[in-house]
Amino acid sequence: MEVMKKTLRDSAPMRWLVLVLISTLMFSTYWFQDFYSGLKGMLQTQLGFTSEEYGRLIGLTTIANVFGMIIVGGIILDKWGIKLAGVIFGSLATVGAAINAMAAYGVFGESHSTVLTMMIIGRVMFGSGLEVVCVIATRTVVKWFKGYELALAMAVNMGFGRLGSAMGIALSIDIGGGRVSPAIAFAATLIGLSLVFFLIYLIFDVRLDKQRGRTTVDETGEDEEFKFDDLVKLATNRSFIFIALLCVAFYSAVFPFIQYAPDLLVNKFNFSYDLPAEGNYFTLFGNISLGNTVIYLGLFVFGLAFSMVPARMKTLSTKLGSLVILLLLFGLFVRVLWGTLSVWFTNGPKVASLIPMGTILFTPIFGSYVDRKGKAASLMILGSLLLIFAHLSLSVFNNVILGYIGLVVLGIAFSLIPAAMWPSVAKIVAENRLGTAYASMFTVQNWGLLAFFWGIGSLLDLVNPEVVKAIDNARLALEAQGMSPAAISEEVDRMRAIGELPSYNYTLPILMLVLLGVISIFLAFQLKKADKKQGYGLELPSGETPA
């Protein structure tokens, strides 16, 4: 009887070490993607960026993916494997992040146009590597965890990405000490460190390939190479067209909003950008930023625990018992840290960061429901309705309690629709065309992101010309007095809070996202209607097929 040879992936500690090394890529790239959200006000007061220029900077991050970089990256990944593709696209993201940071410091010139142009070039290079790096990280998790704890590992890997988004939004101001340039430099450094961790991972990857008798391309036996004729087959599939367009509409209503959410909360509800100097903060080694980092890591652990521990219990009593224990521990966690958390609820970046944090908890729960009960198309309709409610709460109404409720509802929708959408694609599209399908969806999704990242900023300036002029005049006057960039930001925020400077009116830009919610409902209904004719079984649990 032949004995199976043990490999590195058969060792649980080695698998989880690899997961941590790879997940740093997700953490750092998502941090760099979203961290500007918490700095929008300082970009205006310190670098003189208008909302349109901010939107242009964020929006053009996606420009390479609009023209198919994700598809090109997928082809390179299939042909050259994880190792070479990871180094290429990881290095591209790292160099782009470095250029972005150097431009903020004025390395390429200090004129406004030069700083903006070079920062955009850096973001474009970063964006060219961003999505492919995420695909590489996911592909690597499959390579090491297939046949083991794959679902858990993928949830943890994606959780690291959402954690990076949340911490980037919330902590960049703290880390930068109230200045833009150090915050950007820190975010760029994270990208570089994650590339180093990836290079360390490659040592284990090479050893694993040798043990498995592979020395070149990382073949998992799952993915087919990209074929252009597959696009024709997808483009003639009504259900796929509706779900791809739903992907565009939904994500265009969420991701761009997150980039403007802290500034909306500051201007609409008079939240702060900076934490007050005095407060009963949780610190680590006397450092508030380290203390805040520990809190986010704690929320991350609780999010994973709530969504996964009860689900892994076999009896109802053990499920309820584990849930009660987790609730008690979480209550103690909140009680101990209430001095810090209570201040967070009046801080724009901290509150906005809870949107991606919420997905760590809710996405696995909704995903499990879809697996067991089905109703994917119906849940997409529900998620679209929640999207409309959330954006109406944050645009038309001026009640802070309703605003909090809107943010919570948006976080639920942000978890609900993806949990129903992505498994549905696997039912609609044949397995040998899934790679092409996902690459196509990500590509058209970036068309919408580019339009609304940039469009919200442009519309915000268009409907608030007096605000743009007043803040720019105040910034120039404070600069003439010799104030530092951090002091200028602090003074502008103070003047806005007491009414000496007008606040941005976000009503129309956010109402524009309500329209996307309406479009999402229409597309979700059309998807449900098409499924009844084509018989993919989107309303059925996983594993069940229509009669």
Gist of the model:
The chain is mainly α and 547 residues long. The chain is built from 20 helices and no strands. 78% of the residues lie in helices and 0% in strands.
Describe what you observe in this structure.
There is one protein chain. This protein has 547 residues and is mainly alpha-helical. It has three domains: 11-214, Growth Hormone, Chain: A (Up-down Bundle), CATH 1.20.1250; 226-274 and 354-464 and 504-547, Growth Hormone, Chain: A (Up-down Bundle), CATH 1.20.1250; 275-346, no CATH class. The chain has 20 helices and no strands. Helix 2 (40-47) packs across helix 19, helix 11 runs antiparallel to helix 12 (316-336) and helix 15 (376-395) packs antiparallel against helix 20. The radius of gyration is 23 Å and the shape is globular. The relative contact order is 0.13. Residues 215-224 have low confidence and may be disordered.
Query: Shape, please?
Result: globular
Instruction: Determine the structural class based on helices, strands and strand pairing.
Output: mainly alpha
- Spatial separation of the terminal alpha carbons: 43 Å
**Element-level helix/strand string:** HHHHHHHHHHHHHHHHHHHH
Mean pLDDT: 87
Per CATH, what is the topology of the largest domain?
Growth Hormone, Chain: A
Helix content: over 70%
Q: If helices are DSSP runs of H or I spanning 4 or more residues, what is the number of helices?
A: 20
The major pleated sheet works out as: none
What's the architecture of the largest domain in CATH terms? Answer: Up-down Bundle
Q: Indicate the radius of gyration in whole angstroms.
A: 23 Å
The CATH homologous superfamily of the largest domain corresponds to MFS general substrate transporter like domains
Stretches where pLDDT is under 50 for at least 5 consecutive residues are 215-224
CATH class designation of the largest domain: Mainly Alpha
Q: Please provide the count of β strands.
A: 0
Q: Report strand %.
A: under 5%
Number of domains: 3
